[in-house]
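re: that chain from earlier
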Amino acid sequence: MVKIPTQEFNVLISVKTEFIEERSYVKENKYFFSYTVTIKNQGIQSIQLISRHWIINNAHNERFEVKGEGVVGEQPIIQPGDIFTYSSGTEIDTPLGNMLGTYHMVTEEGIEFNAKIPKFELNMPRTLH
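^ sequence. v structure.
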């Protein structure tokens, strides 16, 4: 699990990943990973997650970007002290890779900021020696 604070707005983002064998087709170079993100608002204002920007890298240093509104169909408002958690997934064509990105957020006062999502690894078990 990776944790990073966004200092100016006190947002803590944690990510946990898992290789999903039953959704992967190794012989066809299709590796599916789920990830669960936990966003904790440690600040004094409510914040709303407006959009996401993911950068997904495979083991060949090929980069893929995903941008969109909200997460899993939501633009959650996270109150001070509250936590928002969601799960999603991605497929890459190598057994190793990584992801990182940003969430575009806005405070209850209308101040916009980007909360950094720390880089985390996508690793099929038994591929590191």
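Residues 1-7 have pLDDT under 50 and may be disordered.
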